Here is the input.
Amino acid sequence: MRYLATVKIALRALRRNKLRTVLTMLGMIFGVGAVIGSVSLTSGAKAQVQARIAALGQNVILVFSGSSNRGGVSSGYGGAGTLTVEDALAIEKEVPGVAAVSPEARFSGQITVGNNNWSTEGRGEGVDYLTIRQWDLAEGSMFTDADVRSAAKVCILGKTTADKLFPNEDPVGQTLRIKNVPMAILGVLKPKGVSMFGSDQDDTVIAPYTTAMKRLAGVTTLRTINVQAENADEIQEVVNGITELLRQRHRIQPGRDDDFILRSQQELAETQNAAAETMTALLAGIAMVSLLVGGIGIMNIMLVSVTERTREIGIRMAVGARGRDILLQFLIEAVTLSSIGGLLGIALGVGGAQLLTAIKHWTTLVPADWVVLSFAVSAIVGIFFGFYPARKASRLDPIDALRYE
Here is the structure.
């Protein structure tokens, strides 16, 4: 009963100074709101990046040709032309743990269909490319091994390219021209969206890699080899196997640098996650400063309150209140301020994140663990910064307190 009465007295004291109570809570409101808002933004960005990495496919390893350097100008990955079709076939046959391989050659040019034309970068790929990328066809079919062997003039289109060239008709079964080479359209891919590098994955044409190399690009080497491991646990073993095989095939002596570059999907995900976690920690740390400022504000107001209510405290002690009752009363006031401020801050942060999603179309994600953590921290801040004023109040001498003017 004594504790219930103490709680009522504490809440009554807060209601008596409504404006001061609200102003004191603002620090906690904005602090918790900033934490929730910043974490929501970074978590949303992280989820978006993870989705784009997942769009690469399952257990994917990318083998890039090395870079060339002529006259001080570097070509970047794929420019040296150090990968061959034979390398891709050897990886598929000789490296344990490989599920599928697709040699890749790039080509670009103006695509024309009647009066419509569109410029895009196309890909020459193997028949397993869609399996590796987990990319389904919206209609039509994929080209076959026979098409690859004969360098057939066939292709499939991404959704963006299909819409640009055939805005009001079905492209399957029709013919387009790439660099004046007629290509029969076998199918149209389902939309895949923007890649993790910011490019439109649906703005593409995919042909057999033999067709791209012989008829469209005029090259004899590959830019990339797409490899899929059988499962995630074997990715590193497959990477090691590919490295060993290519070094052997390319006759690279011990101690010399590779003339190719390997990047695994797992590696890309870890790099992006590390960057996102660093940003989350940075923003959350900055927001935590607001919580600290809010806690200092609570301590300041509680000290003022103790001074203003010294005579009241003396009267309570004179009629039988113990020091721990006074301590509990002021602690309850401090924790109430911080807890209500924390709840309102959570509402502000969640509401702000949803508002950004609605207005700016930014991807936001509110992690439940951060909501619980923010509320817990706000309550702890109340206890920590409220303890000293409460202890000071509980140690007042009743006689001195009654004499206080």
Observations:
- The mean pLDDT is 83.
- The radius of gyration is 33 Å.
- The chain is about 55% helix and 20% strand.
